[in-house]
């Protein structure tokens, strides 16, 4: 501040007035609005990419060429209606961790499926082709044979359609059918042939690969009788469609 020549001199005049910058605090600069918008856009892009990747993976797995092929074949086999009654007895078995296939073997609705389908399940829901759902509990299960027998709860005395267990086992070269709920599809029918038979399992060569959800599917003769239960896909059999099935004598031993 300037002093006129006529003003008396003050001792404070000997001190220089500090600049205004001396009174300002050092502060961290805030991110600009442009930077914030850029961060938001990057995060949104990453989330969108992750979602697109997941959806793409889902469609590649569930609607690839093989899946479309087994859908086409299944529709052709089902056209004449000869499998309609089988569909009424083949069920979807759902748990909190996944799903598989099963089938009714008595009019009371006892369901045969794989042990690994219901292993450690806190809740089991069985759904029929007519849309009816039932809670179920495990009556008997064996890891060694990978079979489980379920009992439906609160059926109100309903009589359920069921599949017949064959009296004779399938042999190598025999034609068979597999009906199940692979991936997100329902009541898929595959035609196949028994390729190999051992004491513990049979190799069933069907026209498409065995997928998650096929576990517990009945292996049926041309007379539509159960001769086995699908439980796994053979190592290296992804392209050929080779599945492993619990053979008839093991099923009978488990049920008796």
Structure description:
The structure is a single chain. This protein has 256 residues and is of the alpha+beta class. Among the domains are: 83-152, Thrombin, subunit H (Beta Barrel), CATH 2.40.10.10; 175-255, Beta Barrel (Thrombin, subunit H). The chain is 24% helix and 29% strand. It is built from 5 helices and 12 strands. A 6-stranded antiparallel barrel has the order 1-2-3-6-5-4. It has a 6-stranded antiparallel barrel with strand order 7-8-9-12-11-10. It is globular. The model is unreliable at 55-63 (pLDDT under 50).
Describe this structure in a few short sentences.
Keywords: Hydrolase, Membrane, Protease, Serine protease, Transmembrane, Transmembrane helix. The protein has helices at residues 33-62, 65-78, 84-89, 115-118, 248-255, and strands at residues 90-95, 98-104, 111-113, 124-127, 133-142, 147-152, 175-180, 188-197, 202-206, 218-220, 226-233, 242-247.
Descriptive labels:
single chain, 256 residues, alpha+beta, Thrombin, subunit H, 6-stranded antiparallel barrel, 5 helices, 29% strand, transmembrane helix, membrane, transmembrane, serine protease, Peptidase_S1C
């Amino acid at each position: 501040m300037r002093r006129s020549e006529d003003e008396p001199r003050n001792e404070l005049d000997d001190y220089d007035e500090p600049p205004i910058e001396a009174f300002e605090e050092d502060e961290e600069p805030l991110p600009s609005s442009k930077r914030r918008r850029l961060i938001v856009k990057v995060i949104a892009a990453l989330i969108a990419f992750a979602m697109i990747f997941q959806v793409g993976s889902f469609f590649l797995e569930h609607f690839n060429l093989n899946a479309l092929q087994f859908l086409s074949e299944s529709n052709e086999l089902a056209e004449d209606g000869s499998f309609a009654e089988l569909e009424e007895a083949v069920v979807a078995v759902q748990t909190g961790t996944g799903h598989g296939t099963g089938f009714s073997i008595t009019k009371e609705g006892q369901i045969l499926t794989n042990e690994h389908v219901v292993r450690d399940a806190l809740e089991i829901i069985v759904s029929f082709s007519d849309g009816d759902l039932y809670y179920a509990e495990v009556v008997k299960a064996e890891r060694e044979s990978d079979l489980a027998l379920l009992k439906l709860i609160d059926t109100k005395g309903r009589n359920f359609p069921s599949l017949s267990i064959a009296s004779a086992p399938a042999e190598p070269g025999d034609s068979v059918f597999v009906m199940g709920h692979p991936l997100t599809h329902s009541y898929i029918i595959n035609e196949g042939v028994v390729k190999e038979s051992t004491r513990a399992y049979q190799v069933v060569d069907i026209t498409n690969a065995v997928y998650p959800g096929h576990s517990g599917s009945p292996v049926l003769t041309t007379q539509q009788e159960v001769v086995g239960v699908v439980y796994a896909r053979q190592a290296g059999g992804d392209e050929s469609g080779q599945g492993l099935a619990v053979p008839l004598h093991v099923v009978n031993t488990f049920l008796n």
